Amino acid sequence: MKASGSTMELIGAVMVGTIALVAVAAPWLAPHNPTAAVATSFGAPAPPSRAFPFGTDELGRDVLSRIIWGARISLTVGLAGMVMTMTIGVAIGLCAGLFGGTVDFVLMRFTDVMLTLPGLLLAMALVAVLTPSLLTILIVIGLVSWTQVARVVRAEALSIRQRDFVVAAVMLGASSWRLLTRHLLPNTMPLIVVMAALATSGTLLLDAGLSFLGLGVPPPTPSWGRMIDEAQLYLRTAPWLAAFPGLAILYAVLGFNFLGYGYLRRQGR
Amino acid sequence: MNPGRWLALAALTLLLAACQHDPALNFPPGAQVLHLASQDDVPTLDPAAGYDTASWSFEQALFDTLVRYADGSIALKPDLATSWESSPDATHFTFHLRHDARFSNGRVVTSGDLKYSLQRVLTPATRSKGIEYYRNILGAEDYIAGRANDVRGIATPDPYTISFTLRAPDPIFIHKLCMPFAAAVPREAVQRWGDDFSSHPVGSGAFELKQWRRGQYLVLTRNPYYFVRGQPRLDAVVERVGVNEELEWLQYRAGEVDVAGIPSADFPAVIKDPRLAPLILKIVSAATDYLGLNCQMAPLTDVRVRRAFNYAIDKRKLLALLNGRGVIAHDVLPPGLPGYDPDLAGYPYDPARARHLLAAAGVKAGFAPELWMRADQTMLLLGESIQQDLALVGINVRLKPVAWGPLLEAVRQPSTVALSLLGWEADFPDPENFLNVLFSKAQWGSNNDTFYYNPEVDRLMAQAAPLADLHQRLALYKQAEKLIVADAPWVFLYHPVTYVIRQPWVHGWVLNPMRPTRFEKVWISAH
Amino acid sequence: MLSYLIRRLSFGVAVLLGTSLITFAIAFVVPADPAVTIAGAKADPQTLALIRAQLGLDRPIYIQYARYLDRLLHGDLGRSYIMRENVGHLIATRFPATAVLALCAMVLSLLIGLAMGMMAAAHRDRALDNALLVFALTLVSFPVFWLGLMLLMVGGLYLRSFPLGGFSGPKSLLLPTLTLALGSGGYYSRILHTSMGEAMGQDYIRTALGKGLSRRQAMFRHGLVNALLPLVTLAGLDLAGLLSGVVLTETVFDWPGIGRLAFEAIFNLDIPLIMGTVLFSAALIVVGNLLVDLLYLWLDPRIRLTT
Question: What pTM value is reported for the model?
Fold first, then answer.
């Protein structure tokens, strides 16, 4: 049943597509303003009703609208963070793989040092130090997640470097830049694309974790992770407040994971 | 401490942690044990260091001061001192000590111990947060700077008499001696344990520390040498740590915790429950929570804009978010503090008037100030509510949650923070503790974080501070407060109300306006 | 072999040194004035200046770092600004709770990974295999803290069978362990699945099958043992990921471990405690990696011969 690979990829693409659509269309899709108090009562969350399908929170805000607008933040942070991660990781991985020798040694030692620092802890410390804002979160997430990418890309670059056409190019006197851009990069591209999908699921989870700990994008911008954090107080009396944002995160992360793994499966890995 | 010792400690803790039942928590049947719970561990038990409710709550059980507050009030009554005199100009105070107070190591408490304790607070190496309160003692500055080995303003003519001479008159000095910073500590114990005195406290209070397993629990047992007959009535106090609000509530319902806070989510139901409602205790705390408006940053320099903020914010919404655990503040001082003026009307909720004032002051549409606050759940909720209200009058507030340290630092700089969500709790029952500290020019860059200055107010407060005559003093402060409210450097939000609930078998639990509840008179009936 | 060990050890030390530099750099960039954190809200400028001088905060960076390293080598991790306790002491008393949780989670996740991976391998390319893949991916996609909250809600509030947080004995261990282990278990099951696939494609399997072993027997007797190696080593190298999950889990379950200690430290900008906990976790990971390398050495003779 090898066809399952492409089915999975397709499902993943559809899932990611729906989230992207929701994020882009948020102003038209959301029934209410996500930061205004629209509920009839104030101070306590209200359960799902006809007027508010996902209920309202303690500040009288519509949960459905907040989830829809939250898609914007999640996707922005997830994708931008992924771009940052991939840029650093691919750059380091390719350079290490191509140049070898001292360059490889130094870069890999540096990667090793970064690997000993637990990602979340480092991210927390950096965000706390730099005070939370959208930009800080992006940068921090990128700085913390590139190590896996670098390692994998380096391994792939090393194996490609041994291949005949690369050896031939070197003998013909190709410059490093040419090797990098004309040979290594295009051949590692499929791997990079897959890693991008998987890295996005990682950055989404990291962002959710940071937001949950209170170190994410500051309010009143709706953020799924922080919605769960705020819902802790009401876990017993209003469990839907925590359930819906969590399901949203699960959906988004799963979508990217299906995309990535589906592709891998299709390639037979 | 070398790594080997840590390893041994870790291994031992692991072993003990694996055991479910701890010997320290075994009490004989019929023993009166008070069970409490809290989320965070007690920061410290060293009276020179502690400056928060949790630390003070236990410090006052372990240590004594010269004087203390009577239960439920702000009246002073004897503790280590049996009587005292103060000079009419409030610069000289003499205390006579009781002869039978003993530390838990058996030694009698003398005036020398009190002098030692205060000098310890004044020693820079101790890094005590209480150092400010005793700087005014004659010779304290020299002692702090290292120019003298001894604070000459503290005299101990005999082992049971101690007198203080101040540099400048201070009618509320006695209240400063009531703070746990001034508690008597035995020199030999402090020298033995050094910085770890917090883990091995020795005091003359009603209780002594039996065991403290950090992150897990704290156990106090009665001090056999305590000088009040019949106290404490309890045999032990156990506080379990790392118990969140939710868990504490469930433990209370199960009868495992004797006095507990009430979680927000359950509050509305509890106050209506006929079985639980009579067990609730509440007190309006001597504190005010406010939105600070930086009077030196445009357009907040215009008093009309500041008044507009006051009219624009709906304080009932804030109280709703707090589940009613507060009373709306109309002015600076909390009710219960001497000098509180019940007739000051303050600013009612009136967004139309706010818009009018903002227009009159010419505030542009793009005005988007930053609101700085402590990064905690409740503060964020309140901040978001304020954001909602101000959005309705055309001001787009941006929230900036930061950690406590950076918040304090930023707020003390003249042009960094425009709006801040803060609170101030009284350390002593006198308007000086609010008004002088928060609104005088001398406190710019320190506690006057709104950089407010009104020369008339400064004049009134400078006049009032050294006055020992209460009547005159309060009258002057009343005038000053009226001016401050009219100038609106703050949006006066609310005074928090503390709610706790006790079990039907717990008696003698009294809430105090200035201090945490004391354990000495608490007792437990059979159940 | 000895030279390999020495190389690895000295490399570990070098890595720790690098980590200490990074943690120090972060602490240095912190905008909070430690004096204000220590002295509190109502302190006046003179006291603050005094504290700053005492802490040596007015000296140049490299001197501060040198002093920090010096104290570190003597086992002094400093004193927490907020709790006034010796940082080493704090970490030592809180670490056992995390160790218990991490160990149990590791064991459970390996078991889950084994079970799922083996089932998938046994029915390779059939419906069960695909179903397990989807299941594993779902497990991996759960935000750890949300999973913990949901488990807490169901187990603690609705079923009332589990304590609502805190470390009070074996029963309180179950939900947090499950929270951590489900995600890792899903991840490991995929790794096992892949390495099983590789192992089963090897020649010695074909020989075994030729000798008359059933596919099942071949899988268990030969394939599994060889597939286990990369799994165990990867699990060991995943310590960093485990510690990250531990921080979130400890926060949800009020677990008195170093994860929550680190979080509180960061929240309060309690610099010595932050540096201590980050350095400690780094040390754990370095030691863990070293142990994994040694394990690898012992289990796979081929490596031994080439070093």
Answer: 0.81
